[in-house]
Specification:
With 263 residues, the protein is of the alpha/beta class. It contains ten helices and seven strands.
Length: 263
């Protein structure tokens, strides 16, 4: 299988060290279009679509493989090895942040730094851990997506985006959700919202940046701080940006935070 075609890999930039950008649930690499170009002067920029998203090869989608975040992490490793990448700076948004952590644990030789944008290792409240949602709320979310993919997409996009004054951003996110094959979207949602990657955090031993947005209902501050506390030596930046998608709503602030970390 041609991995570049499978994941619609797009490369650019004048530098040698790769920055690998990974998108979250319901999105595609287009979500990085305001951020990635800022790194092309000094880095090799690598963008891709998860299988089932964007312009990836939908025939490569395997329900069993992608029922776990490990399947997506394995793809990240395959892409990196296929392209001959090393010393990778991995930038993952939302659930892709956890994919990057799993990939870095599986193949520590590939990665030099991690940037986690709105990460959450587990979305469900459990004991002292506050993931932001109850089991019932997650069940209702998944049931709503199962019953009405388009309706769910348009209703949830403004909540996730969290910028009520900028309706065009919620519209873009909603349209991105709607473009995803409904069956794949349902399966990806289950993988995203039911996976528990908390045990993967303490085994990360490379420089890590956590970008924590304000008023993020998907990955609230308590979750970002949990990730920060469990990855030794990690840094956390509390952003002015609101919502869950600063790569779209606040690209300049996102770029500045990442570049400061890499300097």
């Amino acid at each position: 299988m041609n991995i570049k075609v499978r994941n619609h890999v797009v490369m650019s930039g004048k530098g040698k060290q790769p920055v690998l950008f990974a998108h979250g649930f319901g999105c595609d690499q287009n979500m990085w279009r305001f951020v990635a170009p800022a790194f092309e002067q000094d880095y090799q920029v690598v963008l891709f679509d998860h299988v089932g998203a964007g312009r990836s090869d939908l025939t490569a989608y395997e329900s069993e493989k992608y029922a776990s975040l490990d399947g997506y992490a394995d793809d990240i490793i395959e892409i990196s090895r296929d392209l001959g990448l090393s010393d990778i700076i991995f930038v993952g948004h939302s659930v892709a942040a956890m994919m990057g952590i799993i990939a870095a644990n599986k193949a520590p030789d590939l990665f030099s730094k991690l940037v986690l944008v709105g990460p959450s290792p587990y979305y469900i409240n459990e004991g002292d851990y506050q993931g932001g949602f109850t089991h019932v709320q997650i069940d209702e979310l998944l049931e709503a997506l199962e019953n009405n993919h388009l309706g769910w997409s348009m209703a949830m996009a403004p909540v996730i985006m969290g910028n009520p004054g900028r309706k065009e951003l919620a519209g873009e996110l909603g349209n991105s959700f709607c473009r995803t094959d409904p069956e794949i979207a349902r399966q990806f949602a289950r993988t995203t919202f039911l996976s528990d990657a908390r045990e993967a955090l303490p085994t990360i031993h490379i420089p890590t940046l956590i970008l924590q947005c304000s008023e993020d209902v998907i990955a609230p501050r308590s979750v970002g701080e949990y990730v920060h506390e469990r990855i030794a030596g990690s840094k956390i930046v509390y952003m002015k940006a609101t919502g869950h998608c600063p790569n779209l709503s606040a690209p300049d602030e996102t770029i500045e935070a990442i570049k400061t970390f890499l300097a």
